[in-house]
Amino acid sequence: MKLTDAVTRLKGVGPKMAEKLARLGIATMEDLLNFYPRRYQDWTKITPMEELTFDEEAAVYGEVVDVKEARPRPRMSILTAVLTDGTGAVNLVYFNQPWKRDEFARGQHILAYGRAEYQYRKIQMSNADTEAVEPAELADFQKLVPVYPLTEGLKLSRMQELIRQALAQAEDLAENLPARVLRKERLMGRREALAAIHFPKSWAEQKAARRRLAFEELFFMQAGIALLRKKRQQGMAGIKCAPSGQLVADALQRLPFTLTEDQRRAFADIEDDMEGLVPMQRLVQGDVGSGKTAVAALAVAKMTENGYQSALMVPTEVLAQQHFRTLTGFYGGLPIRTALLTGTTKAAERRQILEDLAAGAIDLLIGTHALLEDDVVFARLGLVITDEQHRFGVKQREALETKGEAPHTLIMTATPIPRTMALSVYGDLDVSAIRGMPPGRHPVKTYAVGRDLLQRVYRFMEREMDAGHQVYVVCPLVAESEKQDLAAAEKVYRELSEKEFPRHRCGMVHGRMKEKDKEQVMEDFCTGRVQLLVATSVIEVGVNVPNATIMFVYGADRFGLSQLHQLRGRVGRGSAQSYCILYTDSTSDTARVRMELMTQIQDGFLLAEKDLLLRGSGEFFGYHQHGMPDLRAADILRDLPLLEEARRAARREVAAGLDCREELARRFGGKFFERIYH
Ligand code: ADP
Ligand code: MG
User: Fold this and answer.
1) Which residues are near ligand 2, the ion (C-beta closer than 5 Å)?
2) Is residue 620 pLDDT above 50, yes or no?
3) Which domains are seen in the chain, by residue range?
4) Residue of the nearest CA to atom 27 in ligand 1?
């Protein structure tokens, strides 16, 4: 039988059974073989009865000394078989399974597996699995028994039997990893590994099998990424830029600061890429406040110098405006013609911008998703920058790239991407990391507070404002509807502006406001006219007001760690000591752990890793959204070392000509595959 054959070809699998299997996502032989056990019953270790630990599963072996059935009520049967092994006794108890009586006879030896309980001063196992085994045959039965996640009406023993059949009958289980890789990584063969993951003889064998299957998954994922990379590098000639000249030097000189070492290195990487033959695909990864904008500004200057246009796409209107202000500020007087295009740009202005853009009279276009519209046409687009990349999907970035011919691509993200993610989702990108912060920064002091400290916090905010600093107050998204959230935020605003801080100038910004009003409030906050800004999480990404020193977050338990870190990153951007105050009423475990991690950890990378661990690897951010495949044997969090090995091997093999087209198509199908071959 072939791996692609339907399970209905197996003996005893009719439409009914097929339907049950379908509920588990099993349609083909391959699906069945890849349906790995969730755990194993350990029959390898027989526990002496006197050493049983209550509430734990164990295997015991003994002789039946008594069998009795009680029928306390007409339709009720309680069967008890008493086993002894010389150290103690265990009662095997079965409710309403009178037929079991025939399975036990005095003097017989029984191997039983179940959960030990203490009942009526006896050790008991309810519904234990049993085998009648004479001492001479015992070794044959000492194995690990697979346990699968099942669905109604599908018994474990039936599932085990189906998988046995599939293993015996699958013909095309040829080795799919290159022999060299197998040898070098000392991996188990494919057929052997599949048999051993389902029916391992020992834990060592189970481990080796899992390692092999996890490696295989990661290897093909990485091979796909390596092929993607290869195609990119072969298929297109990039825009080969000249070594940086006067305009770049001027831009560098106009920055109001000198670049940090990491910023310099990131820009040097970018220069190398842009001067090369292959289009740049670079991720600039830097913690919030590390100064990525300046690096992007220099890349734009370089592109302009070479006669091409640049596009900078950001996720929010507020951020687009801020970038427009910042960059036009940096470029003051330089011949880098910059325009802003968002969803709220007036029709007449938009028409003019599009006209200029198509005529090549704009060098840099900054904007939101509005840049993706069909009628936004560039004369010569050479550089595409996306900021806060984690807010976009790969598709959106690619949509912008198609507006040019093999443009250079720069991706900036402030949400730190853990190494596992960088190697998988972003595996086809080169990475520059900005780790150090600009000089003179103090770590943001972080506190978690409850209601009892609220008044003290308010008085502290007052003192900071009186000292000339500014304050953010972030309201959580509490309700189901935006409307209710808004009402909650308005209540906070009224309370703060009227009751707590009547002397200070308070402002409010939220997602439902007209863009014009939002813009006005943000500008007032930037210029210091507003001292205290009440906001919903619209200010989460990118906003830069160095004079703000307090970030106060209401309902902090409702935000994820990465989000809280982003919020915290809004302060500590100047030279004054800044504070992040997390307010929560919640006493739940998650809330407690999150608050603890936030107060103890400043490093965004570390927090992101913790965040992943807390949330589990199943839904780490955007993994599936990026078209990445499901993993069955591998765990992207725990298997980082294996992932690194698989990546090295895959890169080497692809460079040596490996073309695993069929394997990739079968495994990943859809989107991931299309990106590689079409
Ligand atoms: P992010 O990486 O979060 O996008 P920004 O680019 O907004 O950070 O920069 C954060 C702040 O740091 C800004 O106020 C910026 O002017 C300032 N900054 C950036 N680079 C430097 C530097 N080398 N020296 C001093 N300040 C800097
Ligand atoms: Mg930024």
Assistant:
1) 542
2) no
3) 45-142 (2.40.50.140), 246-434 (3.40.50.300), 445-601 (3.40.50.300)
4) 438
